[in-house]
Amino acid sequence: MITIKSPREIDTMARAGHIVAETLALLARTVKPGLSTEDLDRVAEEFIRSHPGAKPSFKGLYGFPKTLCTSINEEIVHGIPSARRVLREGNIVSIDVGVLLDGLHADSATTVGVGEISPEAQRLLRVTREALTAGIAQARAGNHVGDIGHAVQQVAEAAGFGVVRELVGHGIGTQFHEEPQVPNHGQPRRGPRLLEGMTIAIEPMITAGHYGTRTLPDKWTVVTADGSLSAHFEHTVAITANGARILTQQGDAAASP
Ligand code: MG
Ligand code: MG
What angle (nearest 5°) sits at the alpha carbon of residue 95, between those of residues 201 and 52? Predict the structure, then answer.
């Protein structure tokens, strides 16, 4: 069922989203060679819980054990933070985080370079970010979910990159994953219609090689089947009368303490 949120609920999600954005900004400043993904997870959990009433969305969700998903290089999503996973110069690391505040969730992800990264990795990050921006621009009342996926796909494939099929964006609200599914590929005017008051997470997962995936024996970490690099950027947005309102960014006026 697709749920419509009230303006008050959307403002609450923006407050959760502001904490998400501040967490990702803190982590982007923290990332450096020699730190483990467990170190990042600890920083994130402490920061989130320092806000009264805020909790990490992921911890315990479907049994996931940590606050963050941290996915290095060919890992696409759902990497589990570990003291044994140490960041190395030239890696790219995707960091995904959700916050639950006053009964509502917000969800965002970014991919950052560890020290100096290759020109191809830089291009992958830039194109994936541009694909997210293009998808968000289609998140307007009266458009369809397929318009978002089509826009993401156009940007990624024009750059020669792959669009992951098996994992998709999603509605979000009182439940972390709600309907509709928001694929990163598709056709214009297809799929559920977007209505004012819907809140969705748009999250392109783009690969430098083929888009095929496999899941590691830990049953969580999804990697590219061909071992190519992958990037992931995500925002939670609300469909408003004035287009998409990004709820997971820093400096949102509704989110001031
Ligand atoms: Mg996410
Ligand atoms: Mg998500």
Answer: 75
Cβ within 8 Å of residue 50, ≥6 positions away: none
- What integer pLDDT is reported at residue 34 of this predicted model? 98
CB 14 within 8 A of CB 247: yes
- pTM beyond 0.85, yes or no: yes
The whole-number average pLDDT for the span 145-156 is 98
For the chain, percent of residues with pLDDT exceeding 70: 98
Mean pLDDT, residues 156-170 taken together: 98
Residue 251: predicted pLDDT: 75
Measure 180 CA to ligand 1 centroid, in angstroms: 15
Ion ligand 2 neighbours, Cβ < 5 Å: 107, 201, 203
pLDDT of residue 256: 39
Residues 109/95, Cβ–Cβ less than 8 Å: yes
- Of 240, 236, 241, 243, the C-alpha closest to 15 is 236
Distance 204 CA to ligand 2 centre (A): 10
Ligand nearest to the CA of 177: 2
Q: CA-to-CA distance for 153 and 250, rounded, in angstroms?
A: 27
Q: Please tell me the distance between residue 99's alpha carbon and the centre of ligand 1 in angstroms.
A: 10
Q: Cis link prior to 257 (omega < 30° from 0)?
A: no
Counting ligands in written order, the one closest to the CA of 201 is 2
242: Cα within 13 Å, side-chain hemisphere: 2
Q: What is the assigned CATH class of domain 7-246?
A: alpha beta
Domain boundaries, the chain: 7-246
Which whole-number Å values give the CA distances from 120 to 91, 124, 187, 204, 205, in the listed order?
A: 12, 6, 28, 18, 16
Q: What is the pLDDT of residue 146?
A: 98
